[in-house]
Amino acid sequence: MCTILLWGENRNLASHFGLLVLFSMFVSLVFAVLMRENPREQLRLGGTLLASFVLSAIVLGWMMYAVPW
After folding, report:
1. Which of 10, 27, 43, 46 has the fewest C-beta atoms lying within 10 Å of its C-beta?
2. pLDDT digit string (tens) for 29-68?
3. Exposure of 32 by Cβ count < 10 A (0-12 exposed, 13-18 middle, 19+ buried)?
4. Residues 53 and 28 sit within 8 Å (Cβ to Cβ)
């Protein structure tokens, strides 16, 4: 079970959405550091990538929900 200590409490992050956001944060951080030199540009690119990853996953998940498997 994946748990993290936040503000003195154990909170469970083992949901699909929590793990998606955590993975997206790490990938966005690495891409932003590798692709930009200026810290302000790194922050902007990292935020844009994070939002893009999370929103695209939500939209694709919503679209796949409608597909009869």
Report:
1. 10
2. 999 999 999 999 999 999 999 999 999 999 999 999 888 8
3. buried
4. yes
**Token pair for residue 58?**
């939500």
- Provide the angle, in degrees to the nearest 10, between the axes of the packed helices 39-65 and 16-35: 140
Residue type, 10: N
- The mean pLDDT value for 23-34 works out to 97
Non-local CB neighbours of 28 within 8 Å, separated by 6+ positions: 45, 46, 47, 49, 50, 53
Residue corresponding to tokens 């503000």: 7
Residue 25: which of 4, 8, 10, 7 has the closest Cα?
4
Compute the radius of gyration of the chain from its Cα atoms. Answer: 15
Give the dihedral sign, CA 3/11/55/27: negative
